[in-house]
Amino acid sequence: MYYRNISDLNQIILKRLNILPRDFDLIVGIPRSGMLPANLLALYLNRPYTDIDSFLNGHIYKAGERGQFFDIKNFKKVLVVDDSIASGSAMQKSKDRLKTIEKDFDLKYCAIYVIPGKEKKVDYFFEIVPLPRYFQWNVFNHTSLEKACFDIDGVLCIDPTEEQNDDGEKYRDFVLNAPPLYIPGAKIGTLVTSRLEKYRIETETWLKKNNVRYKELIMLNLPDMQARQKANNHAEHKAKYYMEKPYVLFVESSLSQALEINRITKKPVLCTENFEMIFDAQSFYYNLKSGKYLPFLRKTALKIRNKLRKLKSN
User: Fold this and answer.
1) Whether the bond into 32 is cis, omega within 30 of 0
2) 8 Å CB contact between 41 and 27
3) Which residues pair with 153 in a beta bridge?
4) Of 3, 35, 173, 174, which is the most buried if we count CB atoms within 10 A?
């Protein structure tokens, strides 16, 4: 499995920006995944940009306004952008849609990521990334989520505060009314949570209310929060069900648990705390030592410091 997050996307664009000529007049993104790289390219090339439908209707984006008419004389050379190419069918559909106006423009096509063998489907590409692959900007709509496990708190909804996490009425209210966070558009294989089994009805009510589709919900079969804290086996509990089925991905909110789930299962874990994919916990620790994740470490240190200050003041 290959994975690219938004930071990776930005870095590869900056690294290989020189492959693009500087005479493009307009950048056109293919909705919806192509809009993110199109926006970045327009920013770095200092060019206006729009989406493919607006372009076909003679509109571009301008500061302060959306959809101003453009003069065809001002936009001759146009770069049409998508985030990736696999089969090439999506790019071909875009080319077919633009055939009616191609006589008026010099159209060039670009994809940030292509699979091996599809390089000639576009005029420009930035990186070859084989299948299977996930991107941060569309992972939650990927059809293969039926072969994935998801945590709930910190992924589908926010984490409860210390005050809410009382294993009583405050927590029950939280489970029923927690603000949603990342709600997938695709169906999930198994939800694996450290929530206690006694909150199943409330959890299922929330999942239904927030249109979360899934096959199975696995909860922790312990009597109360005290027993859960004593067991302290959150990662082991999640890893067990991840290993039992031929699943290819676990989505976990906690970095420490993500690392432990990966260590136990030797299978990929996507951590929503930093949107890094953990393929090898040992390698991840090496990258921490090498300084790759210094901004993340500083952020974590600040969180810990603030919590300690809060405890001290109480």
Assistant:
1) yes
2) yes
3) 157
4) 174
